[in-house]
Amino acid sequence: MASANLVQELTCPICLDVFTDPVSLECGHHFCAACISQVWERVSGDVSCPQCRQVFTQRNTRPAHILSNVAEQVRQLRLGAAERKEEFVCREHDEKLKLFCQDEQEMICLVCGLSAKHKMHNVIPIKEAAQGHKEKLEESLKLLQERMNQSVRNQQEGETAIPRLKDQVDGRSCEIRAEFEKMHQFLRERQQQMEAELQREADKILTQLENNLKRTVDEISSLEKVIQGVKVRLKIDDPHGLLKDIQALLKRCELPVSSPGVVSVDLPEDVAEGRLRYLKVWKEMRAVVSPVPEQLTLDLDTAQNNLVLSQDLMSVQYVTTDQNRQDHPRRFVKGYCVLSSQSFTPGRHYWEVCVRHKISWVVGVCRESVKRDGDISYTPEWGYWVIHFSFNSVEVPNVISHLEIKPRKLGVYLDYEQGQVSFYNADNMCHLHTYTDSFTEKLSHLKSMY
Fold first, then answer.
1. Measured between alpha carbons, how far apart are the two ends of the chain, in Å?
2. What is the CA angle 276-281-287, rounded to 5?
3. pLDDT by residue (tens digit) across 422-445?
4. Are 47 and 59 in contact (CB under 8 A)?
5. Model confidence over 325-350: pLDDT tens digits?
6. At 24, is the secondary structure helix, strand, or coil?
7. Contact of 378 with 365, CB cutoff 8 Å
8. Which residues contact 395 (CB under 8 A, 6 or more apart)?
């Protein structure tokens, strides 16, 4: 039966004979290379596995070298019994090979078994040795087949991982292009707006300068005519000629003085002061970039009584003295925690938390419905997605201690729809840790200081 199982494992489903040059299909089944080629030659277009009927768009096969080696060994064992009996004769004693030397791993005759060479060796009947080696071969084949199946699975996983990675890269590239296109479009619009405003102001000044210049040119032309008339009159020696229409001439000499005025070529300050306008554009750009750092304040009603908040509600400090604040249903009782006044709903959010000089802290987000009147377990199961430093709980990831340079400020990024909470070193945006979960209610920023 063991021999039949071995042969069955090594039999091609098409030709029903021991494999010859076996190949593996993408589904993991094996066939003789010539057999599968003949089957597929009769098919146009997509092909399928003759055994499981899985359809393939490409005719890919892979040589099964290990299976080929085992099949060749079995094929040799199945040679004609009569022919094999003639071959298995001791060359030295011309006796049939009926024994097997375990030490030398070779077949020997009865005379060899009594000889000095094999006298001290472990010698067994050849049928017993064959049975034992068949079992070993079957076990080897089983292990090789398992290894083969695992290799095929690894190949399939690798082949599917490549397009999956490509899809991720393509999707991320599209997102990057879209985000930067929004910023580029915003900057182009602001650039065109500022250049148009600059040109309008310049055109106003230029129009004033051109009008003043025209008036000045006209005045110069009039003065030239009057001066020429006076010079001509002064050349007349006859008193009668000099005084003829003298009143009209003198009146012409009394041309009104028309000062064009001084036109400032300095641009208005709100146009000329580019640096401040660039700062304004940068602030306006915060509406385009998502997310932008949010300014969070802390909710005094949630602060545990050993925590003191700064006047601007931006920072917290632990003190040993109980602050004896009025009880509040939102206040933490045991955990040295405080929540933000702001809540987070669907969308993408980013904020930064200063942890400089703090010797022990927990930072992250939590559900607004977390338990506050008893012991706290900072785990997602309890509604906490946090990291910590110098805190004795093994449940909370400590991703800071092993860093050579400890961050002075943490960046917390929350993507509500994607179910991600990520932590960064805000100074260089180096990634520290990411949680992946699903959110169904409002979240709050949580700080715990010791």
1. 73
2. 145
3. 999 988 888 899 999 999 999 999
4. yes
5. 888 889 998 888 999 999 998 888 99
6. strand
7. no
8. 377, 378, 379
